[in-house]
Structure formats: structure tokens, C-alpha cells
């Protein structure tokens, strides 16, 4: 009897007290951090679940310095040098040694039973996947696709004109829709691109409408903690929250569109609209698969458009077909939320009374220019986009990697050299890196001028400063796992801002909040700063700054999922 009780107690004491305190190499090295975080991963996982992680890591870095232990095997880093060592050093997303693999944060991002580029752990497999897709999103390819992007972007101003002046417009809905209209063309071919800017009203909270695919994407995001960190609890929690069905809806929608585009390709049709011949993922991967299989592929079996997710082509294993669908699903998700969220933050910042002078400057700069390569050279437009990417990084959360087998990471703690051993999970988070002093003063404020030449600076000093701060940006990651859609996102955003501000001025809707804050006050981050009751009850007493607080999650969003502006012709 004593043995039955004693064995588990000894096990727990050894695992949670003796081993961590006396044998854990990170603790023995003296890596700083709160003691309870060093002993168990429970605390940092729970912070993620409570949507407090990003703000907490920032506080820990301010307290303990740039190297902080946040779990028995996890260290958060916050200097530009360490970020470069890890990400330009291409540390892997998974740790593999002697045939054993430690899966990481990313392994759960696969779809339809298949991994994709983003969720691939090892560098060799990743580069093979990435190579054929890289050219679709290269700068020259995006410039070549500008007529298509322009057509989708100009639907925004058409929509605003239809709505008329002083109408409250939810720009969060508008820009998420625009980004989906664009990215779907790059995935399925322009023939199959969506038209959500035209089809949705954007004058009510349509993204939350039950059954909408955006609601479904949102519900998937709300489950990100379980998807990525505790997959075994995903199904019971989704069922308990009543969103299991809804989460599947976006996947079904993505797959149904995939089937439509595949039907066209397999029968020898082009997936591109002849007016907008844009290179796309489905055609590129399908051609690659046919070349690889060296078979003449003909005819389809009837696709299963329900939950089966199994499009079949004679002679090709369905796993290979689904590998294309998995890649597309990832790009569709990555490509619409991030860009839409950033645009919502940019236009909100420009609409705040204290920042409204930037609208004037922008209008003067973009007047009469709609060519993308010309827009790309404009300093004010560039400064506004860069500043929003810094302050409102759409992915502000940690991007975890492992110290590779056979290597260690040298760090300095309080002037002393320390070694982080192989297999340790290390990460930087854009949110904290973007607040470092290298970016200048008032780092919690939106100040596009930090990207422009100061009147006291020589051109040489300016170039050196800009080189330094550009190299410190982490919004798109760095190294070989850097964002594939970066040029697409930047071009889309610049085109969209030029289109809007050459025609309209914007202001924060006074009907949306108790008060529109007049000064350029600091941004807020996260649910942790506002009591949860605001989320579900009447929250009319909040200001626009409160309502645009960034959700404390891996991919952020305005925490109330809305951003209401009014548009007026200049
Ligand atoms: C403002 C918009 C965007 C932001 C802030 C953003 C941010 C990021 C970040 C930080 C990563 C790297 C994650 C990591 O290393 O752990 C990433 C990867 C990725 N992004 Fe984006 N992204 C944006 C837009 C897009 C768009 C429009 C696409 C369209 C296809 C896209 C596709 C991808 C893909 C496929 C990867 C994985 C790359 C790889 O693993 O090699 N992103 N993105």
C-alpha cells in the first residue's frame, strides 16, 4: 500500500523538483526567469490559453533581460543579434536526433492529413517544397500581376462610393475580404478568385454571421492554443464551445474550391481568367505532380465534396493531391487575415485625430500614381506601412525553433557567457523586438516619421539608421522560413492605401465608441489589459483605442473583431 502511494510521489518530486533544480542544464547555467516557469511548462501554456503570453513575455524581458527561461526547455530571446543567430542561422522547427523527432509548435498546421511548407519541420524537405512556389510570390511576379490586384483593390472604392458619405463601414471586414479576393486568385487561379468586397455589405458585423467562412476561420483561430499546443484536447473543447461544426466549414469551403479548380486543370483548362493571367499555386503544384508521376493523367473520379476531402485522379495517390490542397489552405489562411488586419490598423491609425495630417501628406504623394513599381518608391507611403507593421505586427507572437543537434547557442546574461544546449526551444517575438530602442523613441506610438529622414540627419546617417532598423524588423520573420507572401502583402497594402487616400479622407466613426481619443496615445495589447466582461457585455464606454487593443495571440486582430470608419470624398 505504501509502495502504491510512494512511487507516484517520488516520480513527481523527481520530475518536478529534483531534476529541474539539480540537473536541468538551463537552470544549472543560471538562465534567468521566474522559478515556477522553470519547473513546469504548465504556466506558459496557461498564459497562451488565457491570451496573456505576448504581454507577459514583454514584462519578463523588461524584468530579467534579453534571455529568459519560460519553461523547463524553453527560452525567450530579445536582442537583434540573437534573433539573427537563430533565424538567419536557420534553426529548425523540429528537433531530430537518432531517429527521434520532437514535434514543435508548427506541426499542427497541416490540413487534410498532409503537411505544408509552413508546418514542415526539417530544412531539407522545406526547401524542396518552397522552391517551385517561390517564383509565384517574387517581387517581379507580383509586379506582373498588378492588373489583377488593382481590379480587386478598386472594388473597395467602388463599394465605398455605393455606400455614400458618412456611412459607418467596418474596414476590418472590408480589408479581410479584399485580401481574400486577392490571395484566392494566387491560390486557385484568377478564374476562381472570390468577390467578397462586392458581395458582403461591410456595414454590419458580417464576418461573424453564422455559417460565414470568415466566422469559421475566426473560430479556428480561437482554437489555436489547442490546435498547436494541446491537440489531444481540441475535439472536446471545440465541442464544448459549440464551434466544432463551424471550424470544419472553412475547410470544406477551401476544399470545394480546390475541387472546382482541379476539375478545370484535369480537363485541360486554364485556372486563370485570360484577362488576368497570374501564376498560381494550384497550377504550379499540379504541373509538378504530373511531371513527377510521369504518367498521362486523365479523368477524375467524382470528388467527395463533403468531409471526406479526397479528390481523386487516376494514377496519383490522393495523399499527393491533398498535399496541394494543404498548401493552398495554409496560404489562404495566412494570406487574408494578416494583410486585412494590418490594413485595418493602418487606416484606423491614419483616421485618429492626432494622426490625420498623415492622410494629407499621403494624398499629395500618391495623387495620380497607380503603377505599383512607382508606388513602391514613395517614402511617405512606405513609412506609414512600415510603422504599422512594426507597431501592429499581424503575427506578434513567438516563432519557436530548436537549437539544432550538435550545436549550442551562446548568449550573454548579466555580462557572463552562457550556453543554451541542443534541443532547447528558443524563440523571439516580433511584438517585443519591435519595441527595442533601435527603433527610436516613443516605441508604443504610431510615428511614421521614424522611417523618414530627420532634418538633423545627413543622408549617410539616415541610410545607416534605416539599414539598422530594417534589419531589426521581424514582422515577416527572417531566414529561410521568412514569409513567402511578403511582397504580395506589401504591394497589396500600398496599392490599397493609394487607391483609398487619393479619393477619400477617413475618420473614426463616432457612433462606435464612447470617445474618439484625440491624442496619439499608446497602443494597447491584449485581453489581459481589459476585463473579459467587456468582451461579452455592453462595452459602449470604451474608447476607440481600447477597442483596437491587439488580441494577445500568435496572429493578432482587433480584440472586438471590428473597426468602424467613415469615408468622405476629398
Ligand atoms: C502583413 C501580412 C503578413 C504577415 C505579417 C506575415 C507574417 C509571416 C511570418 C512572421 C511568417 C514566418 C513564421 C515563422 O517563421 O515562424 C510567415 C510565413 C509565411 N507566410 Fe506570411 N505574413 C503575411 C502575409 C502573407 C501572405 C499574403 C501570404 C500569401 C501566400 C503569406 C504566406 C506565408 C507562408 C506560406 C509562410 C510560410 C513560409 C515558410 O515556412 O517557408 N503570408 N508569414
UniProtKB/TrEMBL annotation:
Necessary cofactors: heme
A GO molecular-function annotation: heme binding
Domain of life: Eukaryota
Keywords for this protein: Heme, Iron, Metal-binding, Monooxygenase, Oxidoreductase
Binding-site positions, heme: 483
Gene3D superfamilies: Cytochrome P450
InterPro entries, alphabetized: Cyt_P450, Cyt_P450_CS, Cyt_P450_E_grp-I, Cyt_P450_sf, Cytochrome_P450_monoxygenase
Pfam families: p450 (PF00067)
Recorded family membership: Belongs to the cytochrome P450 family.
Protein name, per record: LAFE_0G12970g1_1
Amino acid at each position: 500500500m505504501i509502495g502504491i502511494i510512494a512511487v507516484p510521489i517520488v516520480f513527481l518530486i523527481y520530475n518536478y523538483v529534483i531534476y529541474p533544480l539539480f540537473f536541468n542544464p538551463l537552470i544549472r547555467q543560471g538562465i534567468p526567469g521566474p522559478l515556477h516557469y522553470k519547473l513546469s511548462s504548465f504556466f506558459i501554456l496557461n498564459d497562451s490559453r488565457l491570451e496573456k503570453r505576448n504581454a507577459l513575455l514583454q514584462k519578463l524581458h523588461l524584468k530579467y533581460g534579453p534571455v529568459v527561461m519560460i519553461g523547463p526547455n524553453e527560452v525567450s530571446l530579445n536582442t537583434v543579434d540573437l534573433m539573427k543567430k537563430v533565424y538567419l542561422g536557420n534553426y529548425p522547427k523540429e528537433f531530430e536526433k537518432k531517429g527521434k523527432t520532437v514535434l514543435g509548435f508548427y506541426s499542427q498546421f497541416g490540413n487534410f492529413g498532409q503537411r505544408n511548407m509552413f508546418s514542415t519541420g526539417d530544412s531539407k524537405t522545406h526547401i524542396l517544397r518552397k522552391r517551385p512556389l517561390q517564383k509565384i510570390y517574387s517581387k517581379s511576379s507580383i509586379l506582373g500581376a498588378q492588373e489583377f490586384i488593382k481590379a480587386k483593390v478598386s472594388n473597395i472604392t467602388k463599394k465605398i462610393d455605393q455606400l455614400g458619405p458618412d456611412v459607418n463601414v467596418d474596414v476590418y471586414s472590408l480589408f479581410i475580404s479584399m485580401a481574400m479576393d486577392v490571395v484566392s486568385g494566387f491560390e486557385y487561379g484568377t478564374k476562381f478568385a472570390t468577390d467578397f468586397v462586392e458581395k458582403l455589405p461591410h456595414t454590419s458585423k458580417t464576418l461573424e454571421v453564422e455559417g460565414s467562412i470568415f466566422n469559421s476561420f475566426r473560430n479556428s483561430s480561437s482554437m489555436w492554443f489547442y490546435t498547436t499546443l494541446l491537440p489531444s484536447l481540441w475535439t472536446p473543447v471545440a465541442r464544448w464551445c459549440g464551434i466544432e461544426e463551424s471550424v470544419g466549414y472553412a475547410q470544406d469551403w477551401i476544399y470545394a474550391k480546390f475541387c472546382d479548380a482541379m476539375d478545370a486543370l484535369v480537363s485541360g483548362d486554364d485556372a486563370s481568367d485570360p484577362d488576368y493571367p497570374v501564376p498560381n499555386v494550384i497550377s504550379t503544384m499540379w504541373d509538378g505532380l504530373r511531371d513527377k508521376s510521369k504518367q498521362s493523367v486523365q479523368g477524375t473520379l467524382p470528388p467527395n465534396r463533403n468531409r471526406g476531402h479526397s479528390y481523386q485522379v487516376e494514377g496519383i495517390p490522393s495523399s499527393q493531391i491533398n498535399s496541394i490542397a494543404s498548401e493552398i489552405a495554409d496560404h489562404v489562411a495566412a494570406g487574408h487575415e494578416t494583410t486585412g488586419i494590418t490594413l485595418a490598423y493602418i487606416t484606423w491609425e491614419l483616421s485618429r485625430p492626432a494622426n490625420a495630417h498623415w492622410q494629407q501628406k499621403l494624398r499629395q504623394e500618391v495623387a495620380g500614381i497607380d503603377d505599383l513599381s512607382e508606388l513602391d518608391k514613395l517614402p511617405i507611403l512606405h513609412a506609414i506601412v512600415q510603422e504599422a507593421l512594426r507597431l501592429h505586427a499581424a503575427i506578434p507572437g513567438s516563432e519557436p525553433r530548436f537549437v539544432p543537434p550538435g550545436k549550442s547557442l551562446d548568449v550573454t546574461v548579466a555580462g557572463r557567457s552562457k550556453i543554451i544546449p541542443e534541443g532547447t526551444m528558443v524563440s523571439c517575438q516580433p511584438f517585443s523586438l519591435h519595441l527595442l530602442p533601435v527603433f527610436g523613441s516613443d516605441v508604443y506610438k504610431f510615428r511614421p516619421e521614424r522611417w523618414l529622414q530627420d532634418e538633423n540627419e545627413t543622408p549617410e546617417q539616415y541610410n545607416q539608421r534605416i539599414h539598422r532598423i530594417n534589419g531589426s524588423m521581424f514582422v515577416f520573420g527572417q531566414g529561410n522560413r521568412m514569409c513567402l507572401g511578403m511582397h504580395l502583402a506589401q504591394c497589396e497594402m500600398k496599392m490599397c492605401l493609394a487607391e483609398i487616400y487619393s479619393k477619400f479622407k477617413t475618420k473614426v466613426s463616432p457612433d462606435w465608441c464612447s470617445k474618439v481619443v484625440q491624442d496619439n496615445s499608446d497602443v494597447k495589447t491584449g485581453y489581459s489589459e481589459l476585463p473579459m466582461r467587456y468582451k461579452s457585455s455592453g462595452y459602449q464606454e470604451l474608447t476607440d483605442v481600447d477597442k483596437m487593443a491587439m488580441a494577445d495571440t500568435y496572429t493578432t486582430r482587433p480584440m472586438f473583431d471590428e473597426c468602424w470608419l467613415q469615408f468622405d470624398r476629398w
